[in-house]
Specification:
By secondary structure, the protein is of the alpha+beta class. It is built from 16 helices and 17 strands. Pfam families: HATPase_c, His_kinase.
């Protein structure tokens, strides 16, 4: 008995793969004719256009594309190398500057520590049993000591001491005494409130010579009894620090940050707030570690930063991207100019040579335009012994082999159908395992461990049958065993409220059936048909009739909806029914299908008809029907 013919293209496609048009002899001729007409439509616009011009334009376009690619790749490599060398140089430079800066700043911090321990300052803060003369004497000595420190270090602009009952200050001198209560009026007082010492970013102080930008270091001074009594502020000339972080490049955009990532001072065209925004964005970037040296492209700039292990400072430099790529852009322009001249010369030579290719190609084009499957025209050209001669011979061979190629479409369709069957078979197992494992999970929660061994035993048997060493066809006996294992698992959950009966004669049990053909319908009855019910009954029967086997599966559930064949959002029971239906059509053709009838609240009756298969068949030609009767 021969298998069914491939379904026509009017049939609904399955899984995106339908039979090729004209799988038979007439279909092959029809497909070839359509292909030739498509080629003619594609060639039609070129009939009145010189083929030499087409070749010329194509070659010109190819050369230009290659030129652009080469220039683009060269530009990218050049920019990458420029960024690497620039960041390497800048990081080394920032490391050296950081070392010098660390030495300078550490010296300022040590001086502030020495001032905090100055005996005259400590004596002045201690008001106990001190007369006016003694306090005046201590103030004079304290002023003298601080003035010597300020004059000995040119980098220090002034020294301010915030203390209760401050002595008078010389307006011409570098030392000023200020009432401690005035500290709250300073904009930077919040910086030192929660710490014993802190650097204060660049700000402006008023001196007898006018406003001067400074960077300050503040340290709290305590009495021997650990009582906060004064604050000493060393004002450092901002110009000296700026000159230090500029190094040998006065036009660089650099910023000095403390460990709190606050901008202490900066140089260049970028403002302090822009640096703060940049640092904040880099902190939020998971690729950036501000506690070690590194670099990153930030917007249209290259940001390089450096922090030595023993340093309390971070030096950052921002370089505009256009400045880095300036040399690469110039190189790309030179390459493009040279390449353009070379392209013009090559195009002139190509135009001359293209004319030599026109005649044989037009002959071949004419032969292609006149091609038809029945006529099989071949170009009769014997004057060309070069590559064109080989092209004509190749075209003739192509025409001869066209029929053979289209004759292979039927075999290709069969292989395609075999792959479709395997794909549909592979889809059913995960769907079934998902629902069954879900029941196991429910039982583990609701029933504990008493029934688990029995469930696992049944599941093991089901898995072995379900896998079946990758076979798609198993005996009806194994199919029923698999089905009965599933029903026994459900009975463990339902108890005596779920009943079933299987009436299949022994001769039928020895025949072969596609794996997992019956189980999806039973699963659908339990999950959907008995949903919301306390009891249920399922009956499975089978009979032989005229070389076929008729299976029926009936239940007394709520019935099935009329739109069960429509695609659903979730992989529910309808999915399994459609899968079985599609596999049966793929195995046996459209003559074998499933039938479903349902009465609301009274149950569903499923009928499955398959041919009798007494021996394990081999999948050939996309159908099992040929081997069904023996």
């Amino acid at each position: 008995m021969r298998g069914p013919k491939p379904p026509p293209c009017s049939a609904a496609p399955r899984a995106g793969n339908c039979a090729p048009c004209g799988a038979g002899d007439g279909g092959i001729r029809l497909s070839l004719a359509k292909g030739v007409r498509a080629i003619r439509r594609f060639i039609q616009p070129f009939k009145n256009f010189q083929i030499g011009h087409v070749f010329f334009g194509s070659f010109a376009g190819f050369i230009i594309v290659v030129l652009v690619i080469v220039i683009g790749v060269s530009y990218q490599f050049s920019v990458r190398e420029m960024v690497r060398s620039t960041s390497y140089y800048q990081q080394n430079n920032l490391n050296q500057l950081d070392k010098q800066l660390n030495i300078q700043m550490t010296e300022i911090e040590n001086i502030s520590l020495a001032i905090s321990r100055n005996s005259n300052l400590q004596a002045y803060m201690d008001k106990k049993e001190a007369d006016s003369y003694t306090r005046f004497k201590n103030a004079s000595r304290m002023t003298f000591d601080l003035s010597n420190i300020a004059f000995s270090m040119p980098i220090i602009q002034s020294i301010r001491v915030y203390v209760d009952d401050p002595p008078g200050s010389d307006v011409q001198g570098p030392v000023r005494f200020i009432e401690l209560g005035e500290l709250n009026r300073e904009q930077w007082h919040g910086t030192v409130d929660n710490s014993d010492f802190s650097w204060i970013g660049q700000h402006v102080i008023t001196t007898n010579k006018g406003d001067v930008p400074v960077i300050s270091f503040a340290r709290k001074i305590y009495t021997p009894g650990y009582e906060y009594k004064a604050l000493v502020v060393l004002d450092i000339k901002a110009s000296d620090i700026i000159k230090l972080i500029q190094g040998e490049d006065p036009h660089s955009n650099r910023v000095l940050l403390d460990l709190g990532l606050r901008a202490v001072t900066y140089t260049g065209d970028i403002r302090s707030q822009q640096y703060i925004d940049t640092v904040q964005d880099l902190i939020d970037n998971y690729q950036v570690n501000m506690n070690s040296k590194g670099n990153i492209r930030y917007h249209d700039s290259l940001v390089v930063w450096s922090k030595l292990f023993s340093s309390d400072w971070i030096l950052m430099e921002v370089t505009p991207w256009s400045k880095i790529t300036k040399g690469s852009v110039r190189t790309a322009i030179v390459l493009f100019s040279i390449g353009l001249i070379a392209v013009i010369i090559a195009l002139v030579m190509t135009l001359i040579l293209a004319k030599q290719f026109t005649k044989p190609i037009i002959i071949l084009l004419k032969s292609m335009n006149n091609f038809s499957l029945g006529k099989k025209d071949k170009p009769d050209v014997n004057d060309y012994q070069n590559e064109f001669g080989a092209l004509f011979k190749g075209y003739a061979v192509l025409v001869d082999r066209t029929t053979e190629l289209y004759a292979s479409l039927e075999e290709q369709y069969r292989k395609q159908k075999e792959a479709e069957i395997q794909a549909l078979q592979a889809m059913i197992n995960p769907h079934f395992l998902y629902n069954t494992l879900d029941q196991l999970n429910w039982m583990a929660i609701e029933a504990g461990e008493e029934k688990m061994s029995r469930v696992l035993e049944l599941m093991g048997r089901m898995f072995r049958i379900g896998l079946s060493n990758g076979e798609s066809m198993i005996t009806v006996e194994k199919e029923l065993t698999h089905l009965e294992c599933y029903l026994q698992i459900q009975q463990i959950r339902w108890g005596e409220n779920l009943g079933y009966a299987i009436d299949v004669p022994e001769p039928i049990r020895a025949m072969y059936i596609p794996k997992l053909t019956l189980q999806p319908f039973v699963e659908n009855a339990i999950i959907h048909g008995f949903h919301g019910r306390d009891t249920g009954l399922i009956v499975i029967t089978a009979v032989q009739s005229q070389g076929d086997i008729h299976f029926t599966i009936s239940d007394n559930g709520v019935g099935i909806s009329g739109n069960w064949q429509q695609q659903k959002q979730r992989n529910t029971g309808g999915y399994g029914i459609r899968n079985v239906r599609e596999r049966m059509i793929a195995y046996y053709g459209p003559a074998y299908d499933i039938g479903i009838s349902s009465n609301p609240n009274r149950g569903t009756l499923v009928s499955v008809r398959i041919p009798e298969v007494t021996e394990k068949p081999a999948l050939a030609g996309g159908s099992y029907v040929e081997n069904s009767h023996n």
